[in-house]
Amino acid sequence: MTSRSRTTGSRSSCLRPANPDNLQPVRLTFLGSGDAFAGGGRFQACLHLAGGADPLLLDCGATTLVALKRADIDPSSIGFVALSHLHGDHFAGLPWLILDGQFSKRTRPLRIAGPAGVGERVNHTFEALYPGATAAERAFETTFGEFSERTPYELGPARITPFEARHSSGAPSYALRVEYGGKVIAYSGDTEWTDTLIDVADRADLFVCECNFFERRGPGHMDYRTLAEKRSQLKCDRLVLTHMSEQMLGHLSDVEFEAASDGAVIVL
Length: 268
Hints:
Order of helices and strands: EEEHEHHEHEEEEEHEHEHEE
Number of helices: 7
Shape: globular
Helix content: 10-25%
Strand content: 15-25%
Mean pLDDT: 92
Largest sheet: 7 strands, mixed
Number of strands: 14
Radius of gyration: 17 Å
C-alpha cells in the first residue's frame, strides 16, 4: 500500500471525536478489498479491527471465512460483526462463519448488528445454502441487533453510529462511524456520493471509502473523479480506497489516494 495523500482538518460537530488519551494501537486488516465480482482476484468486503477489548468485523462478504484462515485469524475469536448493508458481498459469509464455529466446537457468543431485517435475511440465506442449518443445536448463541439512522449502537468493544447511504439493497444501507480502541474509523459501505459522508468522516482517524469506478458514474457506487472533487470536504486524517472493480484497479497509477489490498494492515 503506497501513501500518496494525507490531509488533516477539524470541523465543529456534535459527533464524538477520537479519545486522545487512549494510546492502545488499533490494527485494521483488509481481509477483503474487492467488489462483488472479485475484481483483481480480491476477496469481498471485510475489515478486521483489533487492539480494542475484542476484535470486530466490519462486513462479512461471502469469502470471509477463507480470508480469515488465510490471514491466520481464528474465526472463533470473532465475537462481533457490524454490517453496512444486506448485499451478499457484504454479509453472505456469516453462514460459513457460524458453521465453522459449530464444527470447531466454538462456545463464544456471536453478536451481529446491521440494518433492519438483518436476522431474517441471514437466516433465509443460511437455509437456502444448507436447509435445516438454522435449527441445528450449537454450543454458542448467535444474536442479531438492528441499527437505526444516526443512533449510536453499542456492539461489544465498539460504538457504531450508522448514517443512511445511497445504495439500494432491499433494506437501509449505511455508512458506519465506528469508535473503537480510542480511535474513530469511518466506513462508507457501498454508496454513491452523498453529503452525509461529510459527517461520517468528520475528524475520523481513518476513512475507508468504496471506489467502485474510476470515472464512470453509476447509481449506488462511488467513482474516483467525484471523490477527488469532494475530498476537501472530508475532514478526516486519512482516506483509503476499497471495493474496487477491475476497471478501477486498472487506473491505480492515476489515483492520488491510498488504495487497499487484501491483507494490508493499517495501524492507528
